[in-house]
């Protein structure tokens, strides 16, 4: 296989990892207004992702770095054309990270509520904008013959892009609720399980509309990997329904696992629909970026392949070990004891 094609799929897998991992902790952040009946409950929710949220975000850095090195033309067009949307994502992530660290620095309820609000905003906005951005990459954007984006932020806010954003928000929200239910006890666990069922039903309807639209659009463009896109979309749909059923049976481990499969195969559906392009042009066909005309030199890709072969397994082992160490439930009694000892 040509290394440029290999790296197209490696970058896709890295974004799958990012959306799966940061996706559920975005969902946890979104759940705060619904599950945080008091400060103990809110701390219980936040502590489910406390040891891992920053580690999850490193997948974005790795994916972005690999995109820059393997496909510099794609990276340049994406980050210049989608500059404002990506800047908003970055600012949201910064506010979210700061809020996790500073909410417990003040004793007043007002202080904590302000940072809780920023956590919610910093969870919803990146999910929405990532959905809009990825949907527009798949659909195509106005590019001239020099691969320059000729639209604006409003260009990205088209019906398909907005549906992609709403879909990702709902999928992440449901995914996060499964994780909260898996990692907590008491009222928070009960409320998360109940809300996950309701959110899951809405997500099924919206996600189905988005995936069907994606497949129809890919078919109209004669996508070479259409069969794989249809198969991935079907697996994502079945996994989403299975996650709801597992949640109803109080099988939170299985619900979360099926949630992981839902996110993974939804992203793969978009990747198969995009192949072999990386950024189609809706105005000038000469402006379309493909795997071949956007990739780095074979020498660069060879070095990257060896680096990935050596270091990626180490990263996966470290992340797996981290989740194993912090695998226990975050109980309400533990939070209450911690709060009492702090006073």
From TrEMBL:
Q: Check the record and name the InterPro entries matching this protein.
A: Cyt-d_oxidase_su2 (IPR003317)
**GO-annotated biological processes:** aerobic electron transport chain
Where is this protein localized, as stated in its record? Cell membrane
Q: What is its EC number?
A: 1.10.3.10
Just give the chief location class.
membrane
This protein's UniProt keywords: Cell membrane, Electron transport, Heme, Iron, Membrane, Metal-binding, Oxidoreductase, Transmembrane, Transmembrane helix, Transport
Which segments cross the bilayer? 6-32, 77-98, 118-139, 159-180, 201-219, 225-246, 253-274, 303-326
Q: Name one GO molecular function term.
A: oxidoreductase activity, acting on diphenols and related substances as donors, oxygen as acceptor
List each coiled-coil range. Answer: none
List the membrane topology term(s).
Multi-pass membrane protein
The GO cellular component terms are:
cytochrome complex; plasma membrane
Q: Which PANTHER family match?
A: CYTOCHROME BD-I UBIQUINOL OXIDASE SUBUNIT 2, CYTOCHROME BD2 SUBUNIT II
Q: Which family does it belong to?
A: Belongs to the cytochrome ubiquinol oxidase subunit 2 family.
In Swiss-Prot or TrEMBL terms, this protein is called Cytochrome bd-I ubiquinol oxidase subunit 2
Record the organism.
Microbacterium ginsengisoli
Gene name of this polypeptide: cydB
């Amino acid at each position: 296989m040509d290394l440029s094609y290999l790296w197209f799929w490696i970058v896709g897998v890295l974004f799958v990892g990012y959306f799966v991992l940061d996706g559920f902790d975005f969902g946890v952040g979104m759940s705060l207004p619904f599950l945080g009946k008091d400060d103990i409950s809110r701390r219980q929710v936040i502590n489910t992702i406390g040891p891992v949220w920053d580690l999850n975000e490193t997948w974005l850095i790795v994916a972005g770095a690999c995109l820059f090195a393997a496909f510099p033309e794609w990276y340049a067009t994406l980050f210049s054309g989608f500059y404002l949307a990506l800047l908003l994502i970055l600012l949201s992530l910064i506010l979210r990270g700061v809020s996790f660290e500073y909410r417990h620095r003040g004793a007043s309820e007002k202080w904590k509520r302000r940072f809780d609000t920023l956590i919610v905003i910093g969870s919803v906005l990146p999910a929405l904008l990532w959905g809009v951005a990825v949907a527009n990459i798949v659909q195509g954007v106005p590019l001239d013959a020099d691969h320059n984006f000729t639209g604006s932020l409003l260009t990205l806010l088209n019906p398909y892009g907005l549906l992609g954003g709403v879909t990702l928000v709902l999928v992440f929200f449901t995914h996060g609720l499964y994780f909260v239910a898996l990692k907590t006890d008491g009222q928070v666990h009960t409320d998360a399980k109940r809300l996950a069922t309701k959110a899951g039903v809405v997500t099924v309807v919206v996600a189905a509309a988005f995936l069907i639209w994606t497949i129809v659009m890919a078919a109209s463009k004669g996508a070479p990997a259409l069969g794989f896109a249809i198969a991935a979309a079907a697996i994502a749909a079945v996994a989403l329904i299975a996650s709801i059923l597992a949640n109803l049976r109080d099988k939170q481990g299985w619900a979360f696992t099926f949630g992981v499969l839902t996110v993974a195969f939804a992203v793969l559906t978009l990747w198969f629909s995009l192949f072999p392009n990386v950024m189609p042009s809706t105005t000038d066909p000469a402006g379309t970026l493909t795997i071949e005309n956007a990739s780095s030199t074979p020498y660069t890709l060879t070095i990257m392949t060896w680096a990935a072969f050596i270091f990626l397994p180490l990263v996966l082992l470290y992340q797996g070990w981290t989740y194993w160490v912090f695998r226990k439930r975050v109980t309400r009694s533990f939070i209450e004891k911690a709060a009492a000892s702090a006073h």
